[in-house]
UniProtKB/TrEMBL annotation:
This is DUF3823 domain-containing protein. Residues 1-25 form the signal peptide. Residues 135-236 form the DUF3823 domain. Keywords: Signal. It comes from Bacteroides nordii CL02T12C05.
Length: 242
């Protein structure tokens, strides 16, 4: 009786094994898409960090199971660009792409179709929650950073997000310096600045003593209490102390 039970179980397992090893006849991804999110106040790619900069939401609207259409997400890059290489192109396809969860007013989505081998390029122009003008100079061993933060026109039309954290981020290890890369900036040098609503539009000055013979990467970031806690940033600057 035990032997019969053993062989019965063994037979079932073999059936499951060979069933699961059937050849997958579905074609793999055969199309891509890419793009850039432009900061309307600078005309350049929006400056973010990775992760927690912004996400790209994309949806296959022509998915055959219409009752179960779900969007997918991936992180954008620190320079505002994005790239996805695992899409499916086919006749009659319809997709939608949209930058979301960033420190900017969410733009309208764009719809497009994909054929096999396609690689379309998209441009989105967004209004950042905070715009930062800045300049910097070395005075001997001292770094002097001057900046002015403002709320661009249209940035508060839908939601007003209060100011949270303002900081000059400085690193001697990586150019990918920002709030999320906590091991990538020097805490003692990365000065916090108390910035209130009344300080917007007013020039702020930060002074930091650096070490001779070292290279540093730096930028200013202003965080608002937006749902993603994302920062608005200046570009990363590189400076070498003689």
């Amino acid at each position: 009786m035990k032997r019969i039970s053993f062989y019965s179980i063994y037979t079932v397992l073999l059936c499951v094994l060979f069933t699961s090893c059937d050849v997958d006849n579905y074609d793999g991804p055969n199309a891509k898409f890419r793009g850039v999110v432009i900061d309307k106040t600078t005309g350049k790619g929006i400056q973010t960090e990775q992760p927690n900069g912004f996400k790209i939401k994309w949806t296959e609207l022509s998915w055959e199971y219409q009752d179960n259409i779900q969007p997918e997400y991936f992180w954008g890059k620190t320079d505002g660009s994005f790239n996805w290489e695992y899409a499916f192109g086919y006749a009659g396809s319809l997709y939608e792409v949209q930058p979301v969860q960033g420190a900017f007013v969410t733009p309208e989505p764009q719809q497009f179709s994909l054929e096999k081998g396609d690689y379309p390029n998209f441009t989105f122009e967004v209004i950042p929650f905070i715009h930062i003008d800045w300049e910097y100079a070395l005075e001997g061993m001292e770094l002097v950073v001057k900046f002015k933060a403002t709320r661009p026109e249209g940035s508060t039309d839908e939601n007003f997000y209060a100011l949270s954290t303002t900081r000059l981020f400085i690193s001697d290890k990586t150019k990918y310096v920002g709030g999320m890369n906590t091991g990538g900036f020097i805490n003692d040098l990365s000065k916090r600045i108390k910035l209130n609503e009344s300080d917007l539009g007013v020039e702020q000055t930060v002074r930091v003593e650096l070490e001779s013979g070292k290279k540093y990467y730096m930028r200013v970031g202003v965080q608002t209490k937006n749902p993603s806690n994302a920062y608005n940033y200046t570009e990363v600057a590189e400076i070498t102390v003689p």
